[in-house]
């Protein structure tokens, strides 16, 4: 058998590792840092018209100032449901309603809460690293199987293993950098 038959799909591994980073960024966006962000309410679902609906499909979400998120609810009948969903979500923000506009004042974070949030961010980052390492293992398994089936030489095996390790190191470093930036943002007063 020739050594040309085995070709590790590094593009697929890269895409899947990028997915782990993207997922981490989404999780980080939902962490409250004391600064207003529309991402804060993205995970909240409202029981609207008989089905669970994201808030941004029921109104316009704006951030008019650094410590305020507003939601201009399109259907007046939905205002109380949106308000209740926010209260029940556990994000720790007390909504204030003015007609069809719901205002979410973002309180300052105390030192203890900031430390808790940095730990939560650390856990999210660790999950992302585990995902990247699992993808590394998948790649290494493919390489070992190819070697076992004599599809590649030992030199090729070493080459592909180095490629996978290089990709893994790159994405683990990205997770660490993203975490550092998020923790700095959380601790910033």
TrEMBL record:
Main location: cytoplasm
Compartments, as annotated in UniProt: Cytoplasm
Keywords: Cytoplasm, Protein biosynthesis
Coiled coil spans: none
Gene3D superfamilies assigned to the protein according to its UniProt record, in alphabetical order: 3.30.1360.40, Ribosome-recycling factor
Domain called Ribosome recycling factor: residue spans: 25-187
Function: Responsible for the release of ribosomes from messenger RNA at the termination of protein biosynthesis. May increase the efficiency of translation by recycling ribosomes from one round of translation to another.
Protein family: Belongs to the RRF family.
Protein name: Ribosome-recycling factor
Lineage of source species: Bacteria, Pseudomonadati, Pseudomonadota, Alphaproteobacteria, Rhodobacterales
Gene that this sequence comes from: frr
């Amino acid at each position: 058998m020739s050594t040309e038959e085995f070709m590790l799909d590094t593009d697929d591994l890269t895409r899947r590792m990028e997915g782990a980073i993207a997922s981490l960024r989404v999780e980080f966006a939902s962490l409250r840092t004391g600064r207003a962000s529309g991402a804060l309410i993205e995970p909240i679902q409202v029981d609207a018209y008989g089905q669970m609906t994201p808030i941004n499909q029921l109104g316009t979400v704006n951030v008019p100032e650094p410590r305020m998120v507003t939601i201009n609810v399109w259907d007046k009948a939905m205002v109380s449901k949106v308000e209740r969903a926010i209260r029940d979500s556990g994000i720790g923000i007390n909504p204030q309603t003015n007609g069809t506009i719901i205002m979410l004042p973002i309180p300052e974070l105390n030192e203890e809460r900031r430390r808790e949030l940095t730990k939560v961010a650390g856990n999210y980052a660790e999950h992302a690293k585990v995902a990247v390492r699992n993808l590394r293992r998948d790649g290494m398994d493919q390489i070992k199987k190819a070697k076992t089936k004599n599809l590649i030489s030992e030199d090729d095996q070493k080459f592909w293993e180095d490629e996978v390790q290089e990709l893994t190191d790159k994405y683990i470093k990205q997770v660490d950098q993203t975490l550092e930036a998020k923790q700095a943002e959380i601790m910033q007063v």
